[in-house]
Specification:
- The protein is of the alpha+beta class.
- The chain has one domain.
- It is built from two helices and five strands; from the N terminus they run αβαββββ.
- The protein has a five-stranded antiparallel β-sheet.
- A hairpin with a 2-residue loop joins strand 3 and strand 4.
- The longest helix is centred in the middle third of the chain and has 36 residues.
- It is rod-shaped.
- The N and C termini lie far apart (70 Å).
- The relative contact order is 0.13.
- This is DUF2116 family Zn-ribbon domain-containing protein.
Length: 124
């Protein structure tokens, strides 16, 4: 006695023929299924990466060529669209002050809504 199991494509629900471990009709169904499954996660990551790149670009723009730091008002960065929620790392110096970095550019919060924007020298 032979039992048959009907296997369906995970994307379009059509009947599958062929190998027993087959999950999709074709490459189109496989790609559609995986793209749909990953779309929310990819959008989140894409949005965060875009914010980090924009933050880096804004900090880079503020430091004059040949210099490694500049003091600015925090409201200036806010007006440019800087997103303080995202940074790639934070570093605490020996004085206990915390620098927030977007890659090699960062800032230190100073008194009365001032920031010290810095460029970190990269090894290599």
């Amino acid at each position: 006695m032979e039992t048959t199991t009907h296997r369906l494509c995970q994307a379009c629900q059509k009947l599958l023929r062929g190998r027993l471990d087959k999950k999709f009709c074709d490459d189109y169904c496989r790609n559609t299924f995986n793209n749909h499954r990953n779309s929310d996660q990819n959008n989140l990551v894409r949005n965060i990466n875009n914010a980090l790149r924009k933050n880096r670009r804004l900090l880079e723009m503020l430091i004059p060529e040949g210099e490694d730091l500049k003091k600015i008002r925090k409201e200036h960065l806010v007006m440019l669209g800087f997103n303080f929620k995202y940074h790639t790392q934070h570093v605490r110096n020996q004085k206990g002050q915390v620098y927030y970095f977007s890659y090699e550019y960062g800032f230190l919060e100073l008194e009365e809504e001032w920031l010290l924007v810095v460029r970190r020298k990269l090894d290599g």
